[in-house]
């Protein structure tokens, strides 16, 4: 993270806006619960002159600041960026990329055809087709670093996204996500391709008020329906809170699957946080239109 922060400072000072945006979004992707990372993304969009995306990220930052004891300097920064975004023109600058292009890609689909793995890719496509028929499954791709696990999964994601009908969301597991509730699941919702925004927003707006109040505590889910205000959430003991969060998250995922199949991919998914693992188990207990694909290194182990 220190490297990304230095890149952000360097590109901001040198005026390299595209590099600034890329570095800021990478930081926020790795630490979606970090207020400074989200504010860095806002700053990048303001520098681009992109009012719409800046204001979307401001809502994410506001949700984070509201539920944490953030230092006053961050709230001051938020207020300054909020005023700066409000002064921007409502149209997108002509020299900026489109919203879809500007979304930070969770995976690199590559420019070349996948060689030597067409058989495995064909099998993955068959499993995906079965999942869309209601045969929910969890696949684990395990192997040494560099053998092509990620590239194979990326090709499946590209195949699913080429139709733009069924959401394909990609997240990552790391040491930090292990320490946060639903940490690994939330990384899959950190950046949503434009093609899926309406579908996911409709799903988020369709779930019950109680479920929305629970999931909207997390900025990645709150951003799905930024205009839907959360209501009162009664305090519970720790165990009951975990159960409430589990039920609410499943309701959100089920609402997404009502509108199509769902592909969830996690790179380096082991061990992953306990709540995400519990969600994955629940997804396959009954017939759901979901395929979960996890990659892990051969030396990894599940807790």
TrEMBL record:
Coiled coil: none
Highest taxon in the source lineage: Bacteria
Stretches assigned to the Orc1-like AAA ATPase domain: 114-293
InterPro entries xref list: AAA_16, TPR-like_helical_dom_sf
Identification of the protein by name: Orc1-like AAA ATPase domain-containing protein
The organism of origin for this protein: uncultured Chloroflexia bacterium
